[in-house]
Specification:
The protein is an alpha/beta fold and about 350 residues long. About 45% of the residues lie in helices and about 15% in strands. The chain binds nicotinamide-adenine-dinucleotide and thymidine-5'-diphosphate. The site of nicotinamide-adenine-dinucleotide has 31 residues, from helix 1, helix 4, strand 5 and strand 7.
């Protein structure tokens, strides 16, 4: 039986990856390691918690001894590393927290894997999940490819870039078999409402202002989270060692256009009059160092592994909105307590 360690599996993307692996690969023993920070929530994976091939481990990847002991206990065959501090705005407030988890935490996992596997890498694989934000910002033209130079602008993207470099360095220096993917902005169910789409869905439901940063003319490439999970499954099993793959939706949206689309769909679903939600749009102070545009060229993963998004943006957004409308208790739970303080500080 293969032992697989997934880190960050109680978070947004991680919960979709854990669910997929537990359900699709009963022959694997799947360990989900998560510190359950504000972004981690056992409710996100409640449906699989009693599966015989699933074990949840609460722990912090920054704790070196804990990580070494965990690897010594289980000798994992594969690691899918998603645990991270993931929100740009929080990284501006507290950059060191991002260095701790995203850089030191990744280092601890790399060292534990290297020391545990002791140069015998048969059947082993370390998969590092990263972001397109490491490439910095595009102007109005062009796409990020796997050979685009790293040029991170936010403390979040700088910490992810640093971790990517260490993964690659462990591959070159110690022969660690790794794969690395850089993905565009995800959206879908279980997305913590600090990021644009779930924050705005929550605010529309509650008739609260929709805080658009700057002039709203910033562009992101959006991918449905379940398509990211499919890509991660594919790269873990069929990607080539020591390779990077970009993952994206070929789906660019200016923030303001996306917000207006969201408002229109929500008005229909909530039975509100046309343009009711658009009236909630409020232009607020811009994010410092705000990257103008991200857009991914995902042709390598398409040509080499045959992956492409399975749903259109309209389908994915519809599924996402329906999920939030049908799971308002989840939204209420995650927006009580510490979220209120965060919101007040960020948006007052
Ligand atoms: P998230 O913030 O929703 O979840 C992160 C998870 O990691 C949480 O469950 C949290 O409890 C856990 N965690 C945080 N610090 C930890 C620590 N020190 N030890 C153990 N667990 C810890 O993040 P997400 O959006 O699901 O992103 C997952 C990964 O995918 C990240 O590495 C992120 O950089 C990457 N990524 C995200 C996006 C996106 O659009 N969200 C896009 C591309 C890449
Ligand atoms: P976000 O969801 O934080 O993802 P990222 O910064 O990693 O791309 O933000 C997506 C875009 O939406 C980004 O251009 C910033 C913008 N944005 C707002 O205009 N208002 C908000 O309240 C938030 C959270 C984001």
């Amino acid at each position: 039986m293969k032992k697989i360690l997934i880190t960050g599996g109680a978070g947004f993307i991680g919960s979709h990856v854990v669910r997929r692996f537990v359900n699709k690969y009963p022959e694997y023993q799947v360990f989900n390691l998560d510190a359950l920070t504000y972004a981690g929530n056992l409710e996100n994976i409640k449906d699989i918690e009693n599966n015989p091939n699933y074990t949840f481990v609460k722990g912090d990847i920054v704790d070196e001894k804990f990580i070494n002991d965990l690897f010594a206990l289980h000798n994992f065959d594969g690691v899918l590393h998603l645990a991270a501090e993931s929100h740009v705005d929080r990284s501006i407030e507290d950059p060191l927290a991002f260095v701790k988890t995203n850089v030191i935490g990744t280092m601890n996992l790399l060292n534990a894997a290297k020391n545990q596997w002791k140069g015998n890498f048969d059947g082993k694989r370390f998969y590092h999940i990263s972001t397109d934000e490491v490439y910095g910002s595009l102007g109005s033209e062009g796409l990020f490819t796997e050979t685009t130079s790293y040029d991170p602008n936010s403390p979040y993207s700088a910490s992810k870039a640093s971790s990517d470099h260490f993964v690659r360095a462990y591959g070159e220096t110690y022969g660690l078999p790794y794969v690395l993917t850089n993905c565009s902005n995800n959206y879908g169910s279980y997305h913590f409402p600090e990021k644009l789409i779930p924050l705005f869905i929550n605010n529309i439901i509650n008739n609260k202002p929709l805080p658009v940063y700057g002039d709203g003319n910033y562009t992101r490439d959006w991918l449905f989270v379940e398509d990211h999970a499919i890509a991660i499954d594919l790269v873990f099993h069929e990607g080539k060692n020591h390779e990077t793959y970009n993952i994206g939706g070929f789906n660019e949206w200016k923030n303001i256009d996306l917000v207006k689309l969201l408002c229109g769909i929500m008005d229909d679903k909530l039975g509100r009059e046309k343009s009711a939600s658009e009236k909630l749009i409020t232009y607020v102070k811009d994010r410092p160092g705000h990257d103008l545009r991200y857009a991914i060229d995902a042709s390598k993963i398409n040509k080499e592994l045959g992956w492409k998004p399975s749903v259109t943006f309209e389908e994915g957004l519809e599924k996402t909105i329906n999920w939030y409308l049908n799971n308002q208790e989840w939204l209420e739970n995650v927006t009580s307590g510490a979220y209120k303080e965060y919101y007040q500080k960020q948006y007052s």
